[in-house]
Amino acid sequence: MTDASLTPQEERNKQLARRIPEDVFGDGNLDLLEELYAADAVDRNAFGDQQGRRAIRASYEAFLDAFPDVSQTVVDIIVEGDTVAMFLVSRGTHTGELWGIEPTGREIEVQQMAFVRIEDGMIAERWFLPDNLSLLHQIGVIEFPPA
Question: What is the CATH number of domain 3-138?
Answer without folding.
Answer: 3.10.450.50
